[in-house]
Amino acid sequence: MRNKSHFWGEITAFLALFLDNVGVLVFLSTILIFTFHYPADIIFKRMIPGTALGVFFGDLIYTWMALRLRKATGRRDVTAMPLGLDTPSTIGLAYAVLGPAYVATRDAQLTWQIGMMTLFMIGLVKLATSFCGAWVQRVVPTAGLLGSIGGVGLLLLGFLPLLESFNEIIVGLVAMGLIFSALLGGMELPGRLPAVLIAVVGGTAIHFGLGFAGLLPQFHKPCLHMALCLPVFSVGFLKTLPQSIQYLPLVIPFGIITIIGGINNTESARLAGDDYRTRDILLTEALTSIASAFFGGVAQTTPYIGHPAYKKMGATCWYTLFTGVFIGLGCAVGLLTVIVGILPRAVLAPIFIYIGFEIVSQAYRETPARHCPAVSFCFMPAVANLVMIILAEFTTTLHISTDLLPARLKTILQSLTILSNGFVLTALLWGSMLACLIDGKKRHAAAFSFTCGVLALFGIIHSIEPSGAIYLPWRTSSSLPFMTALAYLLMAAIFLVVKPKKQE
Fold first, then answer.
1. Which of 457, 462, 461 is nearest to 472 (CA)?
2. What's the DSSP call for residue 247?
3. What is the H or E stretch that residue 302 is in?
């Protein structure tokens, strides 16, 4: 019975990790295809195989680490660290890098290479931060670190997938009812059937039933053709650095956050009984992200939250091996492309909404209660980014020129643009600034405000360019970079001048 229990625990853990990764690939592809009309051929034959290669390498290395720990300790219940594609940054890059780059250039090949270069830069940030992650944790308040990703979780992983649920409302709400009942309500289906699996299979069946009945206006017949899709090594993407450097404000926070998450996840695994070397865990996620970029990948790998949960399932060191092999080989033979093409977005949307809720909950849970306003403040730039994403769909599709807008609307659009550009880094700095101010650390708050001013001057945050490009301020035709920088410097001066209230 014990062996049978471990077998099913291994299979359950494998399915959970496998579907997590497949879900990220589904949303990456559908966002690019249906929102930005990016060519599906490059996504399925180049982006996905290269991206999957990072998961393949990472899960194999984590399996080896688990076997090494198992041999060193003599324990047979060692559980491998789960590794997969980072959901917030993948969705964020789809909406904030790949999509806008394609809209601006209409060059699918260049857009793909910009995605590779962006992933390469993320990998470099992760590689550097893996040696100083603990120092970053000490310097940057938790409110800034987690709040900046909380905005991505609430709006890009929460609200945008909710739209997908209502685009196919029957499929979406059936899947939502099953998934929320299991994951949030802790309830079971009759016969203890796996609710998530039933939601995916049942929701997909309803989708195709409605589609073939002519009740879904955007229904596409599935392509079941499998073709060899081997990742191809290339260094050509490196030449796109000039076009990719403007995305540095997204790259830095996304890289730092996953490293901090890796440190926390390794500590979580240690408390659950599996003591991995933190540096090994972090270097693996950094190097596999870099390797993936050279083979066409556009999404970073990261150790997943939930090692103790996988351990409770009965998983050991084999579920990561199964996941890595199935993801890697599945992409190579085209099976994963077929799966990604079949699964409807409305079925997977509740899973991403749930993940978004978890990210937001963690931001408030792990942050001191007095810093909650700082976490909420972090969400504001993400709201601007969400509005810009939706506006861009309308203006691009309807060919609306912003030059024809009334002066008041032009001002609002300009404000939304500068709030949206560099929104993740802006949120990190804003949350950190306010958290320090709440704690009475005036100089620290002023330092964060000063940093915002310097970065805004060069468009690293608050770029005045619709594309989010960075610039030398004296070469722009606008005084707005100087005014924004001055505003932050004045705010820093205020923080230095103010004094705490005298206790009566």
1. 457
2. G
3. strand 301-303
